[in-house]
Amino acid sequence: MVQFKRSLSLVWLCILQSTIAIDVDWGDSNSVKDAAATIAAGMMSYYVGNQYGQTPGILPGPYYWWEAGAMWGAMIDYWHYTNDTTYNDLTMQGLQWQVGPHNDFMPPNASASLGNDDQAFWGMAAMAAAEYKFPNPLQSQPSWLSLAQAVFNEQMGRWDTQYCNGGIRWQIYQITGYDLKNTISNGCFFNLASRLARYTNDDLYAQWAEKAWNWLWDIGLIDKNYNVYDNTEADRLNCTTIDHTQWSYNAGTLLMGASTMWNYTQSDVWKNRTSNLLSTIVFDYFPDGIMKDVCEQHNACNVDQHSFKAYLSRWMAATTQMAPFTYDIIAPLLLSSAKAACAQCTGAPTGNVCGLKWYLNGTWDGTAGVGQQMAALEVVLGTMVGHVTPAVTNTTGGNSPSNPTAGYNASNIPPGAVVTPATKADRAGAWLLTALFSLATLYAWMRI
Ligand SMILES: *[C@@H]1O[C@H](CO)[C@@H](O)[C@H](O)[C@H]1NC(C)=O
Ligand SMILES: *[C@@H]1O[C@H](CO)[C@@H](O)[C@H](O)[C@H]1NC(C)=O
Ligand SMILES: *[C@@H]1O[C@H](CO)[C@@H](O)[C@H](O)[C@H]1NC(C)=O
Ligand SMILES: *[C@@H]1O[C@H](CO)[C@@H](O)[C@H](O)[C@H]1NC(C)=O
Ligand SMILES: *[C@@H]1O[C@H](CO)[C@@H](O)[C@H](O)[C@H]1NC(C)=O
Ligand SMILES: *[C@@H]1O[C@H](CO)[C@@H](O)[C@H](O)[C@H]1NC(C)=O
Ligand SMILES: *[C@@H]1O[C@H](CO)[C@@H](O)[C@H](O)[C@H]1NC(C)=O
Ligand SMILES: *[C@@H]1O[C@H](CO)[C@@H](O)[C@H](O)[C@H]1NC(C)=O
């Protein structure tokens, strides 16, 4: 009897799952939009910043401040790809609430764990708002473009030639990780610079993009086969050793930056860099045509890492518009990954919660979170990239007001400024995990 009841409930569970899983007719954009709406709602169910007594813009723990910025970027994409304005007010409020006293996405509350990469994810969300013509904020508030410019200007001021002949550091303040120069910080600075160059046609930004790329290349964070590695140690080792961990988002931010530089310069050098990066991305992150980060099969992805495929998806989709010659390679990979992603969005309690292991042939991996939802959302949106308008510039309809000197005068925050953060335990813990994991498992795995 007990046996019988159990198998009956298993059958029931299967029926429940197959009826609730996210079924998509990939040829019908309304069906794809419905899927995106379901996944977006799942993601936004974690957000409570609009509730009484909560802080707008941020996510509750365990999510760090940066991931909320990334999430608003996803919501701008969501609106742009679907025309669904459901979350626009929350997005506007969240982004503007977190601009901080200098309109530069450095709110004091976030200073305990504020990396250049963290600030950049908010800056790139603002950049996307300008590029996609998200509704402009009130005139009393900083424009989307000026927020991106502020982040760029400040990070340009943090370019540090004391060690490694350049590059920006991971952390802004002297907390754990300050001694590292990492690819996501320099890569997002590059990404933002390329997009500001294209949007404003101001070549200063392009020159910095070039400089950041050259530095990543010279140090070996991009190798001659266009593998993209994670970080290098500055203060003690002068960037002579490389942590060879490979994450999808590092390669992704460079891909979009390179394709944007191609779009801006139309130089074969950037075309070549774009296609070489793309070939290596296909090889490194699409085993069997399904996007995958290396931590997945080791059950070792941390909270941050659960969201990385969101950004590779976002940036690959944008790349097809900046460099249309990449479309025929990227579009099928986004589609096969999106199909795999949706097939496994069968998790409890709603029956459409997404996990991260898209390669599991439709089996939910038992995990849930903002990162998992965001990754599935961005890859599903990416399948529609052929039908949406590309990023504008200030000569093709972009009307976000420019402020080329936006940001807190960088000379007031000298590189290496010492602050005592409220608490650094969390961030240090996350860093330690990443470091241990990368040294032990990953390095070995990548070399098999
Ligand atoms: C969104 O709306 C605009 C203007 O109404 C339209 O041109 C565009 O095709 C729509 N995009 C999508 C993805 O439905
Ligand atoms: C900073 O934290 C305080 C206290 O939680 C909150 O009231 C305020 O809105 C926060 N500011 C920002 C920009 O998040
Ligand atoms: C540090 O590395 C840079 C290149 O990455 C090199 O130009 C510089 O000479 C090195 N400095 C020292 C002290 O080794
Ligand atoms: C675009 O932005 C650049 C840099 O701010 C400015 O020089 C130029 O006048 C702008 N063009 C338009 C059409 O607004
Ligand atoms: C393009 O990339 C290939 C492979 O890395 C390289 O051999 C070739 O010299 C590059 N060509 C140009 C024009 O940069
Ligand atoms: C630059 O991007 C626009 C918008 O997607 C596209 O129409 C154009 O062909 C691209 N330019 C080049 C050189 O690829
Ligand atoms: C998924 O299915 C394919 C084809 O049936 C099979 O080759 C592969 O091993 C399966 N993967 C997993 C993780 O079950
Ligand atoms: C920043 O401040 C310094 C010193 O006060 C000044 O010389 C410089 O012109 C300022 N730069 C900008 C961009 O405002």
UniProtKB/TrEMBL annotation:
SUPFAM superfamilies: Six-hairpin glycosidases. InterPro entries: 6-hairpin_glycosidase_sf, Glyco_hydro_76, Mannan-1_6-alpha_mannosidase. The keyword Cytoplasm does not apply. One of its GO terms (cellular component) is endomembrane system. It catalyses: Random hydrolysis of (1->6)-alpha-D-mannosidic linkages in unbranched (1->6)-mannans. GO terms for molecular function: mannan endo-1,6-alpha-mannosidase activity. GO terms for biological process: carbohydrate catabolic process; fungal-type cell wall biogenesis. It is found in: Endomembrane system. Keywords: Glycoprotein, Glycosidase, Hydrolase, Membrane, Signal. Its EC number is 3.2.1.101. Residues 1-21 form the signal peptide. PANTHER family: MANNAN ENDO-1,6-ALPHA-MANNOSIDASE DCW1. Belongs to the glycosyl hydrolase 76 family. This is Mannan endo-1,6-alpha-mannosidase. It comes from Hyaloscypha hepaticicola.
